[in-house]
Amino acid sequence: MVQSLYFDGKSAADRPVAVTLGALALRFEGETTAARDWPYDDLAAIETHHPGHPFRLTSKAEPNARLVLRDDTLALALINRAPQLKGGASLKGVAKVAGGIAGGLAAVALAGYLVVQFAPQKLAFVLPDSWRERVGAQVEVSLTEGAKHCTGNEGVSALGAMAARLAEGNPDLPPLSIRVYDVPVMNAFAMPGERIVITRELIRRANRPEQVAGVLAHEVGHVMRRHSEAQLVRVTGMQILFSIMTGGGSDTVSSIVGIATILSYTREAEAEADDVAVKLMTDAAIDPLGLKEFFEILLAEEGKASAGRWGEITSVLNTHPGTEDRIKKIQPLPDGIAARPVMTDAQWDALKKICE
Ligand SMILES: [Zn+2]
What we know:
- There is one protein chain.
- By secondary structure, the chain is of the alpha+beta class.
- It has two domains: 2-86, Pleckstrin-homology domain (PH domain)/Phosphotyrosine-binding domain (PTB) (PH-domain like), CATH 2.30.29; 129-352, no CATH class.
- It is 46% helix and 17% strand.
- It has helices at residues 72-81, 92-103, 105-118, 120-123, 129-143, 153-167, 200-205, 209-224, 227-236, 238-245, 250-254, 259-262, 267-283, 289-301, 323-329, 345-352, and strands spanning 2-7, 15-21, 25-30, 33-39, 43-45, 55-59, 62-69, 148-150, 177-182, 188-191, 195-199.
- A seven-stranded antiparallel β-sheet has the order 4-3-2-1-7-6-5, covered by helices on one side. The chain has a four-stranded mixed β-sheet with strand order 8-9-11-10.
- It starts with a strand and ends with a helix.
- The structure holds zinc ion.
């Protein structure tokens, strides 16, 4: 019995489960997860297994669900029983860079330089998951230092329900880690490794859950396009490659750049995140005007003394310049699609009280 994590693909929650290998199927269960079997024949690897790194799997019966094994012995025993798991998408880009290092330092330095100079957005998609997770965790700790993590049970499950609503009609949504912190400034952040942080003040100031869902969808846009990873590549340059090669995390990275720099996106990235947000909301039949309304709340704040209260970190959604243009681009749901509420009134109440 080995502790692993299960994401059901519907909620953002990660559930600890114990995994055992049976004759024909892998079985897992946990406190909040009823026992279930995934037949060996149905399993698929999300990426190739690398010793020392989490091994992510899915199953035909639950294509949106993920099981994350953190034990090499278990992973190898499983691959023995389900040989198709040896394949999977490989991290070709990183392998190429690693191959380059073996080939000669000058070539590597040149290749690395070119990669980080000209393709941060592409490199963001070949960074090892284990590294992204490690860096994301460290960025979150640095960002939220001193702030209380809000863990009201019903509020947390309301947030999970909101993420699950966004995933409706968007099965490719990756498993997300979404946390609320008790910070008296309206803000939200997307970090490496599919992490999102929302402040209590943002939830407090929202008039309806669709506004929070709009912000969340925008941050999911940054996550899906890996904007924070790309930004890391952009600002740390070659350091990032050494950090990956040596198994380091953002201790290397944060020593050379501030958190604010990592979380400040280009105007282009903001526009992309808006587009993803509107698409996610439309596909899930959530009123996209929630995002628009939230922009309007932010616009009303602009120019007030409160701006920039939380260090140098730019305001949520990076409002100016061009906020009016961004607002104009957000269209209501097309005719024929009726908006469905993002959560119940009881869930909305619970979310409002998540920090109490
Ligand atoms: Zn943004």
